[in-house]
Structure prediction request, 163 residues.
Amino acid sequence: MSKLYAVPIDLEGANEFVLRHHRHHKPVIGHKFSIAATDGNNIVGVVIIGRPVSRHRDDGMTLEVTRLCTDGTKNACSFLYGAAARAAFASGYQRIGTYIRRDEPGISLKACGWRLIGETPGRSWNVPSRPRKDKTDLIPRLLFEVVNRAALNGEKVKTKGDP
Prediction:
């Protein structure tokens, strides 16, 4: 196994990797930041981090992994989830979460300390008040999250509007 390194990548580069390698998602529109995993010569994976899709989780102190994609390199998923959490916490965010399909095992998330905190049914974004075309399979999703260690040690997790 080769050593992995985290390097910054712009959204265009991350989306190009997703377009070539992701099995069921397309590129994203926006992000807060993205990180690439490299083996020293080639990019072997990317993680794209943005605001939470759910308005209920979008409190100003929470981020969400909106895409994670690798070429299959061993441990690249865990490496990228860990790098995303460290970068989020270093930037002052208190939580970072991600949704995975219920038919995915979540081994990489569990391996780097993320906890399963919920499940959501597969719902369509298409509603009469805002017609949309569904972009992915309508299957249940699992929500995993990791919280900043300071918050776990009893410090108040600040949200938007707190002094």
